[in-house]
Please model this.
Amino acid sequence: MKAATLGAGAMGKVLAATIEEQEGISLCGMIEPRNGETLAALSQQPDVIIDFSNPENLEMLVSFCGTKKCPAVIATTGFTKEQQAHIAELALQVPVVFAANFSLGITVMKRVLAEIAPILEDSFDMEVIEKHHNKKLDSPSGTAKMLVQALNPKGDYEEVHGREGNKKRGKEIGIHAVRGGTIAGEHDVIFAGEDEILEIKHTAGSKKIFAAGAVKAARFTQTAEPGLYNMEDVLFG
Model:
């Protein structure tokens, strides 16, 4: 399988190294749009495009993958609703794995939260705290939003982003973002009840975990039918 990466920044370099370390997959190109490069410059036809770049590159990705019938793994976050609709349209033509986080641990965490939230929600308050490096642009993180969706699938709870002033807590989920240093990624979900606290936490030690998950997703696309998939589809089928 030949993979090309869209984005050659820090994450792109980690992804490239991960690809080269694994069997059955090779790197056929790294495209960095910030340097004026485009997917059309690829010298070989890739079997999959893995995107760790910026939402502004989506049009190029959709055009290339739609024309070449090339599967895509989209790990970029911060898309608008309109852009997400374009991703869904691409998935009608080719397999697309689109997720806010490609960590295998986060994928399992999301599944666990969906299972226990209905059991605890009536007697426990729920809070989400996420921490990332000081260069991350979007907040809260796409992963935090994904975890909140697992906690609040029907929208029964108000989603409160940070708190200030004097206000009694209502039926809500607090969502808090921290930005600093070189934190690769940390997500903590707190269930706070009467005299007991349950915390489910995931800490990313490095960017390698996201690259490993993206490669696993890339392999998945090679046998999948056209459609829009997430990491739960990749792990749990």
